[in-house]
């Protein structure tokens, strides 16, 4: 029978807290180290719906990528979402552990899962921040069009209302791909330096993305914004498998699962008509 201390030790080995970014808060958030753990659930975000589902399914430990308490709070009353989340966890004896930037830089970690979805080989680091590796660069087996690559990637990602945003000619050939799960518009310099044909990341803001495309003069690197939730969701199943394997080597068996709750904040998209694609905006009289 596993206890929380057993599982936390394994998670800390897989995603060492010392590798977290200086601004991040990772590790155990709620829970008694002596409590029994039979079922561990992985999710991207510790939302109220994710927590309620964990309670309904008799989960003992919820492992999320994003922290619940990244920034300081002054109240945990249930009148606020964070307070309601903490209360729900504690009342139900559901422990919470966060592996955020520790999972981003782990090998394998978030970016390995995204690279696998892109079908990349010959992986190497994209950039370094101290002793932390951020992002990966790899090669496709053969060059394919940007459109084909984007369609193939979309099929590997969890479905979201917004889908993928792509910048670049649909028929342009791509082979070298840089990936960084989650927000990545602060790495354009490194992406250019590695010679990537396309950069797959998320949360691309207007000004950095526009400046990056201007610097490229219409050429590479092309950009794919695949969504924050989608690019990091891919890590959950491999992470659950790794944890179960590590514990099994120690004679400990736990059930693991991945949350079915989509925590992408967007609900629907009002799409552009196909005949309007590429048209210049026209002022309405």
Automatic annotation (TrEMBL):
A family per Pfam: DUF34_NIF3
Keywords associated with the record: Metal-binding
Matching InterPro entries: DUF34/NIF3 (IPR002678), DUF34/NIF3_sf (IPR036069)
Keyword hit for Lipoprotein: no
Keyword Metal-binding: yes
Listed SUPFAM superfamilies: NIF3 (NGG1p interacting factor 3)-like
PANTHER family found in the cross-reference section: GTP CYCLOHYDROLASE 1 TYPE 2 HOMOLOG (PTHR13799:SF14), NGG1 INTERACTING FACTOR 3 (PTHR13799)
Family per similarity comment: Belongs to the GTP cyclohydrolase I type 2/NIF3 family.
Assembly, per entry: Homohexamer.
Name of the protein in its database record: GTP cyclohydrolase 1 type 2 homolog
Protein source organism: Branchiibius cervicis
């Amino acid at each position: 029978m596993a206890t929380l201390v057993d599982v936390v030790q394994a998670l800390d080995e897989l995603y060492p807290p010392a590798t977290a970014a200086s601004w991040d808060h990772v590790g155990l958030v709620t829970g008694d180290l002596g409590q029994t753990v039979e079922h561990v659930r992985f999710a991207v975000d510790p939302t109220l719906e994710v927590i309620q589902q964990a309670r309904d399914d008799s989960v003992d430990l919820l492992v999320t990528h994003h922290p619940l308490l990244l920034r300081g709070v002054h109240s945990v009353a249930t009148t606020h979402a964070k307070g309601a989340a903490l209360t729900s966890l504690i009342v139900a004896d559901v422990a919470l552990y966060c592996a955020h930037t520790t999972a981003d830089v782990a090998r394998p970690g978030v970016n390995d899962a995204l690279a696998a979805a892109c079908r990349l080989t010959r992986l190497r680091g994209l950039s370094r921040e101290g002793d932390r590796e951020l992002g990966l660069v790899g090669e496709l087996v053969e060059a394919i069009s940007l459109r084909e690559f984007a369609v193939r990637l979309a099929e590997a990602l969890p479905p979201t209302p917004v889908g993928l945003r792509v910048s670049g000619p649909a028929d342009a050939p791509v082979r070298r791909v840089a990936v960084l799960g989650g927000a990545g518009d602060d790495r354009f310099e490194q992406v250019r330096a590695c010679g990537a044909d396309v950069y797959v990341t998320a949360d691309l803001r207007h000004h950095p993305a526009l400046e990056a495309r201007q610097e490229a003069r219409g050429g590479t690197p092309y950009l794919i914004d695949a969504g924050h939730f989608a690019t990091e969701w891919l890590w959950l199943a491999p992470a659950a498998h790794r944890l179960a394997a590590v514990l099994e080597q120690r004679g400990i068996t736990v059930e693991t699962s991945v949350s079915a709750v989509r925590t992408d904040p967007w609900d629907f998209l009002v799409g552009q008509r196909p005949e309007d694609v590429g048209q210049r905006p026209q002022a309405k009289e």
